[in-house]
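RETRY 2/3 - previous attempt timed out on the joint model. Re-submitting the same 973-residue input unchanged.
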Amino acid sequence: MAGIYLHIPFCKQKCRYCDFVSFAGKEDVAEAYMACLLKEIELRGKELSGRTFDTVYFGGGTPSVVDPKYIYAAMRQIKKCFRLSARPEVTIEVNPGTVSEQKIAMYKRAGINRFSVGLQTAIDAQLADLGRVHTVRDYLYCASLLRGENFSADVMIGIKGQTRDDLQKTIEVAVGSGAKHISMYALQPEDGTPVYTDYLNGELPDDDEVAALYDFGRELLARKGYARYEVSNFCKKGCESRHNLNYWRRGEYVGLGVAASSFFAGRRLLNTTDLDEYMKCTLSGFFPVIDSEEVSVQEAKFEFVMLGLRTVYGVSGRRYKEQFGSDWTEDFAAAYKRTRQYLETQDDVTRIRDEYLFVQNKILSEYAP
Amino acid sequence: MAKASKYLRNFCIIAHIDHGKSTIADRIMELTGQVSKRDMEEQLLDSMDIERERGITIKLTPVRMFYTALDGNEYELNLIDTPGHVDFTYEVSRSLAACEGALVVVDATQGVEAQTLANVYLALENNLEIVPVINKIDLPSARIEETKAEIEDVIGLDAAEAPCVSAKEGTNIRDILEAVVKCVPPPEGDTDDPLRALIFDSYYDNYKGVILFVRIRDGKVKVGDRIKAFLSERTYDVTEVGAFSPRLQPKNELAAGEVGYIAASIKSIEDVEVGDTVTFADRPAAAPLPGYKKVQPVVFCGIYPLDGSKFNDLKDAILKLKLNDAALTFEPDNSVALGFGFRCGFLGLLHMEIVQERIEREFGLDIITTAPSVSYLVHKTDGEVFHVDNPSHLPPAAEIEFMEEPIVRAEVYTPPEYVGAIMELCQDKRGVYKNMTYLDARRVRLDYLLPLNEIVYDFFDELKSRTKGYASFDYELAGYQRSKLVKLDILLNGEACDALSTIVHEDHAYKRGRMLAENLKDAIPRQLFEIPIQAAVGGKIIARETVKAVRKDVLAKCYGGDITRKKKLLEKQKEGKKRMRQVGTVEVPSEVFMEILKTNKDRK
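RETRY 2/3 succeeded.
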């Protein structure tokens, strides 16, 4: 099974923590861009005609900021150019400040059956501080439009001034709104973003405080019936994101759009991050790829372990052996020996012990080549 | 009998740091046309980067000049520049042995300094003619007459005729040269006698092999001669002889009285020792010249390569430094925490810093150095007595009857307002007050006996900070003294770390242990488990700090495009571990071993 990712690089306004490839105030380019995206879908579709894809994901940027007819057109092109499985999971990221009843209806007509809604926090002052374009009320409205649908809410920890009570309120809003899936991310202050300045000024909660918030949130979510299946992802039974699970299983995926990345046939590709260049390439019938790297066996093994250990499903010795023909505890004998006290093994599956999932880099880096 | 030339003068310059020695040397070279003003780099003789940057002379550097004196004769002058710092007294004594005279430079604004005096005595012991020179007369605060009087009072030299110069402005430099010609006697020695040349320095040249700096006492030497070193008894064919201009300048021969260099394809830097005498292989002189007394290192530290696989590079670097730094001693050492390295001995703290810096700069090696230590005299209960300079070699406390530590005689010069602060500092450092002298209204000299181990620890930094940098300080060894010393161990997660052990006075153990533990707590990165840091004396824990377990180290998102990036991040994280040393279960950054032993002054 494999996944398809489409990048919609437009936003109403850039969030203060965002370092993704996205552009505010460039909606006038959206039409041209979406046309180019159709072209790239066609190009890739021909190349990958033998594969079956199980998931489609519209990410951004803010996919919900562009006219929904473009999403509809892109989805139609996907169906035309790629072979999809019988019941594909099709997700779109939406910003609560940019939705309407018609938009949601159009998405559903396009075949979208899963929504990822950026709530981030249920404290309006914090939303404003993050540079989000919506309020808590906008979120609640958005959730009401999605009633009965399979949707996920993004929750952020480590925001300036965030308390336990704030997080509790946010999780309760997310749960109460009917989200079956909750992603709880630690804010990562990236160099070059306005939030990074807050970080340098010491205004953000420190690592210990973030860890405390995380533990608090995790326990609260567990009580509410959301099980952790990856370090930042929690859901009701059976509501895992199939698209994301595919990444962590080292499944193949094709990324379409500016700055999208792909992994298939043992190579990792990266599309140009320059909007003009992307459009020129695709219109001329070229792949807009600026980086293409074959993954060595050694790297592939490390990826397998690194990604597997992110999840509660861990590393399956059997699956590893199927892929690489060797025993992972032997391939990584030294690292395994140094870290086994932080791991637990059941049958042939090894996972990071619950309490160490949030410090996993210390463990994973031991396995790096 | 063929005497050495009577138009030859060999002299050196003695001066306190900053009194203008190198600048005077530069002006003299300029005046004799040795170097044109245009080609002049500031302080030509200080050729090492470190020397120029720090404004000090470490190595002695010879140069040959020609000067037509007022008497109408042309003289050949050999000037040997000397280091001024106390640590390099040994180098000074070597250059003195190659000269007949010495210029003693005194700063007209500062007067005679302790170190100048010490070197003057050294010159007198070597039967050198002393020529006092008063420098910096251009400064408004110059006190020429007082300085002359001080030279007469303190040194006991007649300063009436002393040249008064400004090296900075080039005033009266000719007076210096006239004084050299007039006062310094020409060398003795017979050019017909069998060769006897004193090796006063050497360095390694990649093309010519070892270059020997020599002063020919008797006979002469030319290319093709077969020479022999007295001590090693090795023989070599001379490939080049020459003078210093100050760069190497080949000559046909070197004769009695002259100063120059010999190259003889000497491959190994250990084959020919500084202080040895060179003679002919087939017609040797009856006896060697008196050599130098071996200097004893007083400060020790471990030097290890940051990258354990670079041990051999470190070894080469130290061997090469040893070639022109006779005072450096070393022996292979092995630390549980730091791997293979060397235990090195130095003449003092500055010497130690210079060597460390030269290894890093001239050889491009990253090194870890352990805390400086001194050499203790250990008396065991079974009557055995021996020196220990490495804390990890100290026998168990139960086997030690008592220990002695080196004591120094320290002279601190300071403006009067800091006397109180300095006395307090010396008190803290277990000093014994000896004397206080008002040199004039603005300068006080304090004499103390201080344990050397306090000085190598942080005395100098403390002195500077407590006197806003105004106080200066000199010391010389004054023997050993019985003392209550203990070994302070550091345990990380219950395991002792040999590279962090120190020997301290019993009364300081608690304070030092607590400070070390606090410093380590800040310096050791948090790991997956809690790390107790304990300071212990003889099995008794005296201080404890804890490095808490890390609670967050995670990449929150890892989707399509993140995978490559996060993979690289983890690889980098692993790469960072290579700069860590494993102490039991604990990973300790290499820098810790150097930084941690500095005082708490840097801590916020």
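The CA atoms of residues 220 and 411 of chain B lie 45 Å apart. Closing ticket.
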